[in-house]
Amino acid sequence: MRSLSAGRAAPHLPELVVVPGLGALGYLVPLVRACAGWTRVHLLDLPGFGHPMTARLPADLATVSRALTGWLAQVPEAPVALLGHSTGAQAALAASHDRVALLVLAGATFPPPARRVGPLVGRVARTLPHEQLGQLAAVLPYYRRGRRRLPGLLASALRDAPEQAVGQVPPLLVLRGRQDHLCDEQWAVDLASRAHDGRSVTVPGAHNAPYTVPELTARVLRDRLRMVGGAHGEGGGAARSRAQEEEPCCT
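-> structure tokens emitted (251 positions)
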């Protein structure tokens, strides 16, 4: 698995690992740049979507999660903050969290009502008008590269049930854009509430909020990492009491 890395490791903050949705890297580069100012960041190129050597690998969610687990075990310094966006959030949730200090599900797909084609199309139609047109140039080259692999990854993601796995994760942050109907507020709050130490944050933008507001997203991540570090120092009781609080919306 290849990765694009930027920034330098910080003494008191973990490195950040970013898993893209549907194999597209370009739209997450602004977030990588924003976070590289305060820690080392790794943006992963999913197997089968990049180097020709992996072109014959299965492109389903389980394969991506296994590859991510293997990469986490060998490459970065532990612990790390693991951020997955869109279907990348599902892959990050399904991977091993042995070396993960904070799990971030950004634009987490798909709530149960959106796991059928009709409702999914409706949610996409309500979300797209709020996205920035400029991101097309950042994602289309990767979608062309993935070609017929994309439907397989999407189909496996639609069969996934993230709500069944979120209870056994490290401290959790669920981040969504205010106009994201693929990850609506109810779904974000529900996922966060199922975790032992979970919070949900709403920022401006739609499904690809990390692209439209990268600096704000980076600040939310850094603040949450600092909070997790403080909670570890205060003991489990303090962490449990905060787990039920919903993070205020960012503007």
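DSSP finds ten helices and seven strands in the chain.
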